[in-house]
Design goal:
This protein is an alpha/beta fold. The chain has 10 helices and 18 strands.
Amino acid sequence: MPALPNSHEALLKNREYLYGRLAILGPADPALMPALAGSGLVVTERFGLWQRLSSLEGWTAAFGYDDPVLSPGCADTVVVFLAKARAEMALRLELASWLVAKGGRLILVGEKKEGISGAVKQLRALAPQAAKIDSARHCQVWQADHLQPSETFDVRQWLQWHGVESSGVRFQVAGLPGIFSAGALDAGTAMLLDSLASFPLKDGPVLDFACGAGVIGTWLQLYQRSLGEPGTQVDGVDVQSQAVICAHSTYQRAGAAGTITASDGLERVEGKYAAVLSNPPFHTGIRTDTSMTEEFLRQVAGHLEPGGELRLVANSFLPYQELIRRHVGPVSAIAGDKRFTVWSARRH
């Protein structure tokens, strides 16, 4: 069996501190749960990982922070793995303090190089009695006992709104901790929106892959309406729970139309589209990872109508041009600078 992440190995080394009903927040590898040889609740924000966790015997898997299987006081021990962003760590700790039973235990685990020291400060703000119980596998393991649980938890209380403007169209976008580019319009998406104004799409349904908070689909519909045209329905798909929540919220506030789907890649997307748009991610945690986009490029032609367009913005150094040409069709750069390139391809 492949080696588990360092943080998972550190937890297994200290499994004697786990007691009673378990809840595990933010694991990276589903192999951890069978290694714990127990049962309980496991929470992930990633749809593909949730699917794998759902198949584990004895474990109840929750997708994100609003899954209906989550309930207060359901765990005697809650294990929280380090989140990559400080704001999401605060969200995880608040969820943990709602899931834990009165007098229960919280275990925090994370790698030193990924910022466990900052998370410890957040833990101690919640539980001043927290103490380190081990350093192992370049990680620290902290424990807090006799917790007083929170009475309420609602992820939508964490929603924050910010304005976005492009080509004279302004609207409000929902943000949650852990979502890409929360609080601002990132430069890559801005370039993609400019290209949609300069080179309009042909008529027909549109899919926004890795839709995030729903910026592209909302803007496109509002921009078309500003020109006196009926807004094209834009469906969205994303792997992350927070993105799905935010996209629903952004669409609802703007009066945009489209179905938002949680999916690992295009697995749960049905039908064909006149255009597929994307500003896909290329990071997993702190590491460059283009595997999801490469898999998307291998599959996207099957979701394009004949002659349908793929329009994608990406960092200019990423090697997508040949993949797009091979799997979709003739490709050209229709906008770009040293940082980003907008690629346009028509299905063969």
